[in-house]
Structure prediction request, 948 residues.
Amino acid sequence: MADATRVQGMDAFTALGETVRAALSERGFTTPTEPQRRAIPPLAAGNDALVIAPTGTGKTETAMLPVLDAIVESDAEDRAGISALYVTPLRALNRDMRERLDWWGAELDVEVDVRHGDTTQYQRQKQANDPPDVLVTTPETLQAMLTGEKLRKALSDVRHVVVDEVHELASAKRGAQLTVGLERLRALAGPFQRIGLSATVGSPEEVGKFLTGDRGFDIVEVEAGSKVEFTVVHPEVTREDQTLAGQLATEDEMASHVRAIRDIVRDHESTLVFVNTRQTAEALGSRFKALDEPIELHHGSLSKDVRIDVEDRFKSGELDGLVCTSSMELGIDVGRVDHVVQYGSPREVSRLLQRVGRAGHRRDQTSHGTIVTSSPDDTHEALAIARKAEAGEVEPARIHHASLDTVANQIVGVVMDYGEVSARETYDLVTAAYPFRDVDEETFREIVRELSSNRLLWVNEEKDLLEKSGGTWQYFYANLSMIPDEETYDVYDMSSRGQIGTLDERFVVNFAEPGASFIQRGEMWRINDIDDDEARVNVTPIEDPSGEVPSWTGSEIPVPAHVAGEVGEIRETAARQFEMGGERNAVARDFLGRYPTDERTVSKSLRPTERQVEAGLPVPTADRLVLEGQGRNVVLNSPYGHRVNETLGRMLAALVGQRTGSSVGIETDAYRVEFEVPPSASVHDFTEVLETTDPDHVEGVLELALKHSESLKFTLAQVAAKFGALKRYQGNQRFGGDRLLAALEDTPVYDEAVREVFHVDLAVAETAELLRRIQTGEVALETARERTPIGIDGRSSGRELLVPENADASVIQAVKERIRNDRVILLCLHCTDWKTTRKVRRVRDQPECPECGATRIACLNPWDDETVKAVRANDPDEEQERLKRRAYRSASLVQSHGRKAVVALAARGVGPQTAARIIGNLREDEDDFYRDILEQERQYARTQSFWD
Prediction:
């Protein structure tokens, strides 16, 4: 293993042949960049290597010049097939890499081509018959190529594989899948050189092993933090913002953010404005549209044509700015960028470095970025991340070790490669990939048995062979990707007949009705009609300034514990000075030497901490957790990041719920866990659980709690699809999560679903260690009898300021229409004989039973036959008693409030208790009643994975 400091080369280009050196002179490359100087010599010598260097320092040429040189210098017969693969995580990067490599290919007489899911059949056939020297492709397309007869022959000549943006793949299942794909390629072509490229890697040794199968490699690392500068700013509201707020129909503070970003864009030639969600991108983009600014939108739910159009217009200088999400992180060529704005904390150090690294896209130039924040938590988090980025303190890659659905997928892939293959050879091949080195033989055989029972392959026990079955081919090509399938609707502009983007099924079901308006591409659209069969929404553009911001499925970016911990340090440092009588601006000035910001921004962020100290309340830090409660809310203030807090939250909800016999709802962020508790629970219950729970039992408690969670059922369905198990159980009928869980509980499918939830959402070992530290007194646990300023601050800091909290009239109307058209079961609890299913709009103001005339009518979900059975059961068990009690609460509401109760109970995630609370608000305005319902539905959507 060669350390970066030992990788030398005074003039790296001398390691290359004459033909490539001549091309370098022609291209104007006279002096190598630092990554080229240090990496080209070992790469030219044929070594495997991981090259980590800031964007814009010539990483592509660093990797490809030695590869192109090896191709040029090789014998003609060695170039019969594909000599090199360049693997990127995005199709858009394929296009860019092809354009960047075309010049070198033409100059060196090396054929370069691209292949991905959109490549035409004609072009694919041409590549199979006459393979290019260099093929740019994606991980998923490599999977398909490995099974084609002609392409396997072409791939047998591969001598080099370059994996671009390797950090992006290392933390994803599709990356784990790629590692086995590379082993399948090695079995076909023999050993080949592996080169990984990235701007940011927090654990180079681990990612190098991931890339090479732990076969020895060089690490060449140029610190990204040495080439970046940041400024963190919370905009001050000005008079101009108050005028702007009226123009944009928004709040003054929101207007100040829009104005601050607009001014930054105007002060620079070309600016990327990164946001964390597509919703925020749309909301911000619509503001710039209203101001007629030359700033456009770019995110993954816009159509390919729209994205290419804005990329080209930005590159040509027609646009001054692009509002974008992570789709623009990974080096898509949009020309020179001279500044990056990050709106809101970027959540992770690696993400900030990756994004701001897009600026200063010239050799050895420093990249500049501004982080615009919106709350105290947001500011502190951004300060911590900016400091860590400049210091190069990047998060380690979170590799999916032993993901069993990936093993299942790749076993089928190996069978596709060979038709029949020995189980032993397949096991050895899969476990040669670094993420699967610890998969034992028994687990492997359990997976094979599961695949066999799902008819995806045949097992010849006598000869220990795995063979193709009737379902092998269909499964494999339907599961080339490990990315879970998401149901989406295509959105078409009826005036131009072109596609503008996509919407998630959940948004369409909840909000999309003919006549409703929404924002996409930063513009307003009204829905003409929805074609469910074609999964298509037809729209026309409108001038109406109001509209719902769509929701898209996507995981929230989790804040790591090391970032949240530094936020705790900032609070603690400030609190000590406030306790000594320090004035807020003076305290703020002390932070300026450590963090890249201004006095006013820090001073504003320290206000909740100052108020906490003034009230004599404990300040939560990494060494002091604070529990507070009021009414039915308990908050644990814990600056330990999303995953630890998620783990703590689920554990506490399960154990406190067990004590009280009632469900406990949770909502989590990086600094606090908020619980909605039954009246019988108190802060004391939470204190006792934290102080007495055996840390060694955390994992067991969580797995037990997970069995009742929607998150496990959802993940189980996705994993089951990758095992080919859904068809086996589902047939043509909908198969509920509870039944699926019961059917798969003792299988590797269930084991993988639990592993994935633990890996993605939780941090069991870290939480167990935190419990130990609480119980030994290393971490103090204090309580407050009232809500604290820092505890309350999370309510506002978690909100996307640009996304309106109150729905506009068109959305309220859409909610009304949707609920009125929903169906409910009406069941008479007096005679229990009468039961009917009807639309809400057809329910009478005061429902009564036509059989016996009773008004004690329960309103149930249309699929809730279990409750009907429970009500009619002569000798109900404990679960049926619970359902029966729920039905009687529902009937009591309907008897007292009639059709209004039916409307509330028909809403998604609203049970009798919540419906009673909504009705109890006594809204005189009907729109306010529906707005309360909508807020509860949104709350349910945010927290449903934590409820039994």
